[in-house]
Task: structure prediction
Amino acid sequence: MTSNDEDLMQGISEMTPRLLTAMEAFEQVQRNMHPTRLDQLADFIRPFDEELRAAFEPFDQLVFPEHIAKFGEHIKGAATYSLRASDGILNAGGDTMAAMKAMRAQCRAQEMLYPVASVLTPISQYFLELPKRDNKALLESFLEEREGQRVGILNAANDRDARGGFNLYVPEYLDTSKPTPLVIALHGGTGHGSDFMWAWLREARSRGFLLMAPTSQDDTWSLMGDPDKDLPVLLHTIEFIAENFAVDREHLLLTGMSDGGTYTLLAGLREESPFTHLAPFSGVLHPEISMNGNIKHAKDRPIYLVHGTHDWMFPIETAYMAQQELEAAGANLTFRPIEGLSHTYARNENDALLHWFNPALALDA
Result:
């Protein structure tokens, strides 16, 4: 027996804002993640968890009719993962790895929620940057029928039990015949492109650029000498995308977090590198770059270096050393030491980074 319309509408109206609020709150947890702050973060997330849990219990009992069953499954799935994420923080007990797993559960919540973004305006707004959330024309553009067009999130052999594939996000309203900037975002060690994509999707959806989130061939990128398994695949993938979409070759950004940041410089500072801009976050300047002479390829290269002053994995001193070497090599360097930031992705920096990468992508452009 299905639930009646009144029960469904009430359940959706009570559940949706609590789910979105909890997910927004968890982004604050991610920004402030540090092994010494886990108890504080648990105190912060607890009231949001309690609100969501109270709404979820009756919502989970609702039975959706067949024509909207998928919608109900996605909302329930997103809430389940969101609760799992907050539970991971609440019960971390000082275990940093448990907290990191909670971050991945938050990514799964977003993955479950995105397919119904076009159904409810508040969900669509959640997947936009704040200044764009009341842009009526933009919101309406996601509702237009695009029969046969390859837009949205495209998965190329990138399920979470696989390595070496990629996700490509093509904004649903994008005119794919016009040259479009491409951002390639590399996950950290033991990470996955299907998760790291969410660190950039909101920006790509708001501003209209192609977003590629690949997964390394092994648990992390090719950082330990030859052979480099990842660069040939990355280069091939870029060409594959360019065959199917109009890629702006003058604006091709390679960026990454942690090991992905380290590999951004390792792969980007090579002869005939196709990447026009490099933006490593919380990584290091790999010694091989200087040892093999590739540091010379930093000359005049636009590089946006981001590092937290409280990074517990790669101390800020490593970033200052990278700054010195890159500037000595003649790089066109922008260095952003973020006060108080731990070893976590500085998503707040995406806005300035995109303006630096291509002023046409600025929110007010």
User: Anything to note?
Assistant: The radius of gyration is 21 Å. The chain has a mean pLDDT of 95. The first strand starts at residue 152 and ends at 156. The beta strands are 152-156, 166-170, 180-186, 210-214, 247-257, 277-281, 302-308, 332-338.
